[in-house]
Design goal:
CATH topology: Rossmann fold
Pfam families: NYN_YacP
Order of helices and strands: EHHHEEEHEHEHHH
Largest sheet: 6 strands, mixed
Number of helices: 8
CATH class: Alpha Beta
Mean pLDDT: 88
Distance between the termini: 59 Å
Protein name: NYN domain-containing protein
Strand content: 5-15%
Strand order of the largest sheet: 3-4-2-1-5-6
Helix content: 40-55%
Radius of gyration: 26 Å
Length: 181
């Protein structure tokens, strides 16, 4: 039965891109857009598998654009901060709302960042904290788990008729089969 209050995960997107080696390579070779897309794709699957309501937060600090949110799936949305607002500021504001929520004891909020000051702030608000590297490990473990579950099971050959009859009978059957051909 789905939880009435699924865990909320707030991810500092550029912090994660800067910490995951494969996303760093994509960013350096092909740009931030592709790195963001790859992180988004990985978080779609991870969030759906775990039932997290995840927000990937990206700084728009130096761009003169208003904040905007994009719903990707029912479990994942992207949030681009307002001009002069950092991802840290947005995440802190969300943690502050969580702390003031009278039902916070029924809820769980997880902040993903490797920024030490942000870690301490999130925990101070009562949120859980996960480093970018720990998230990467959890994403990989989830992927392996899904792959293992989807792997076709090998057929049990012990119960096949050919394995239950004696050698003489097998030889006679082979002779008959050869005569038919």
């Amino acid at each position: 039965m789905p939880s009435e209050h699924p865990p909320v995960m707030l991810v500092d997107g550029y912090n994660v891109i800067g910490m995951w080696r494969r996303l760093q390579e994509i960013r350096d070779l092909q740009g931030f857009d592709l790195a963001r897309s790859q992180l988004t794709e990985e978080m779609v699957n991870f969030s759906a598998y775990h039932g997290y309501k995840t927000t990937l937060v990206f700084d728009a600090y130096i761009q003169a654009t208003p904040a905007r949110a994009e719903k990707i799936t029912k479990n994942l949305r992207l949030y681009f901060t307002d001009h002069n607002e950092t991802a840290d500021t947005y995440i802190e504001r969300q943690c502050g709302k969580y702390r003031r929520d009278p039902l916070r004891h029924l809820k769980r909020i997880i902040v993903v960042t490797s920024d030490r000051a942000q870690q301490l702030t999130a925990v101070g608000f009562g949120a859980e904290w996960l480093s970018a590297i720990a998230l990467e490990q959890e994403v990989e473990a989830t992927w392996r788990s899904v792959q293992h579950r989807q792997k076709p099971q090998k057929a049990d050959t012990k119960n096949l008729l050919g394995n239950r009859i004696d050698g003489d009978t097998k030889a006679k059957l082979a002779q008959w089969r050869n005569r038919l051909n």
